[in-house]
Amino acid sequence: MKRTFIVLGAFIIMSCISMAQNDAEGCKDHPLFNRLTNFYIVSCSQNFNELQLRMSDSKTERKEGNLFGIDYAFNSDAGQKELSPFQVIKNYENAVIRNGGKMLYKNTNVQDADIEATFHLSTKEKDYWVKLANFGGTPNAVEHFFLYVLEMEPMKQEIQASEMMDALNKDGFIALYINFETGKSDIKPESQPIVDQIVEMLNQNPTLKISIYGHTDNVGSVKSNQILSENRAKSVMNALIAKGIVKSRLSFKGYGDTKPIADNNTDEGRAKNRRVEIVKI
Predict the structure, then answer these.
(1) CATH placement of domain 161-280
(2) End-to-end Cα, the chain, rounded Å
């Protein structure tokens, strides 16, 4: 098999690339990543499509969205040494992690299976699923590879304080989809309006006391999910306190992945399970 090398400066396009070969007409790098030096684009595509992603040696998932496909080839006339598949994948891994994402799967052993890697990261605007595959060359010299980037709209929620209160009066709780940094308890800026509406609801109902329950999907260990759910619930509580809500009106608890409300076998189901519930005390 043949391989290729890639260096990405995630989210920042440097465009300082020397190319002895011309890119295919109409093709360019995806805005998320820089290309590796001495690589050029053989072909590209962009359309609404589905992408099969490997999550483990025995599990794959299909996701759909706006799919970019780029075939990169190494310019052998440049007189530079080719990189190994491991180096190619490691460059993408470093860039993704640097921007709050994570690697879900990697295989660099050509003797074992096709070389492939899967990454996931989120920004304020979109969720990204990234796949490296179809490596060509030798085990130590990548000559070409495919980069797939699938863009999906993240789950968003717009809700007013009055709607929250109506739900609490009717059902005793409401599920809110507050977005956090991947694997962390930091509330993303786009979810600040939801926090502000909780504050407004509490200010409009000065005798109301609530408990904040954190829930996760089943990705990761039971212990790590439990800790993450507690930290996220506490993070919301602290955000309310920072806005002037007295602590005596608030409490928090984490349930990890023990109380799913949707199928954890699908991305959409896991997104629904990653929630924060506000419960009327």
Answers:
(1) 3.30.1330.60
(2) 62
